[in-house]
Design a protein that fits this description.
Elements lengths: L1 H46 L5 H20 L4
Length: about 80
């Protein structure tokens, strides 16, 4: 009986440990995603450097809005 209760408590502890590790990995992945997006968006002006400054600003703004909508799930 005591072994059964011990096993249940162990499994409950393992469950909460797994939940905590999942949340930690999710937050780490979101931070890495934001960092990569920031780096990628900072590279865009170099790709379109042949455009005039006003058009370049519109292109960067447009791509930023598209990425933001994609992250928020507002497609279409």
């Amino acid at each position: 009986m005591i072994e059964f209760i011990s096993n249940i408590l162990q499994k409950i502890g393992d469950f909460f440990t797994a939940i905590w590790e999942f949340i930690k990995m999710l937050v780490d992945d979101i931070v890495q995603l934001v960092t990569l997006l920031k780096d990628w968006l900072s590279q865009i002006p170099e790709l379109f450097s042949w455009l005039p400054a006003s058009l370049l600003a519109l292109v960067v703004l447009g791509i930023g809005v598209v990425v933001l909508y994609k992250i928020l799930g507002r497609e279409g």
